[in-house]
Amino acid sequence: GQQLNQSPQSMFIxxxxxxSMNCTSSSIFNTWLWYKQDPGExxxxxxxxxxxxxxxxxxxxxxxxxxTRKDSFLNISASIPSDVGIYFCADSISGSARQLTFGSGxxxxxxx
Amino acid sequence: DSGVxxxxxxxxxxxxxxxxxxxxxxxxxxxxxxxxxxxxxxxQFLIQYYNGEERAKGNxxxxxxxxxxxxxxSELNLSSLELGDSALYFCASSVADEGxxxxxxxxxxxxx
Lengths: 112, 112
Hints:
The complex is a heterodimer of chains A (112) and B (112). With 112 residues, chain A is mainly β. Chain A contains no helices and 11 strands. Chain B contains no helices and 11 strands. In chain B, the strands form 2 sheets. In chain B, strands 2, 4, 5, 6, 9, 10 and 11 form a 7-stranded mixed β-sheet that branches. A 4-stranded antiparallel β-sheet of chain B has the order 1-3-8-7, with no helix packed on it. The model of chain B has no long low-confidence stretch (mean pLDDT 95).
């Protein structure tokens, strides 16, 4: 089956710094999704990407769908304490959102 | 608050027992998805129902079963529980057969 490799596994950054994390796949994707999970909560969709090369922003978050369709990155600018959480990339099989496959997650800690 | 509700929030039981987790989707959503989140396996898709019918199946054990009722709520039944079944179980819902999935807060199952 397809695998998502997400890196880094964890990050410790100072408040105000920019952050970048990425995902790579062994298969070509039709969709890249980025989720955030706060402690004790379910994942929340941050950004959805549907086309190779697509660059999408959501406030301080920016994500891109790689040209090869096998990778994606998520950038967070000017980090704040509430950015703390686990960030997951995810994809859906065959362009359908029925069955999401998640990466292993990046645990982000923002230090004051 | 995603609008998806899950009960109970926590469940502690013993090996060999059977439990039922309940999920109510967002108002108007016809699809319900179940995911398992464990430390070693990460977030994994289990099963999807759409308007009462099973639509997609993932890595769901034979000891696990689910159903979606006419009022669209769903139940995940876990039987012959093992220590390794301890995990967070999330329900998600979407409007249609595919599309953005909204996650509930999860049920934390502990098997002793």
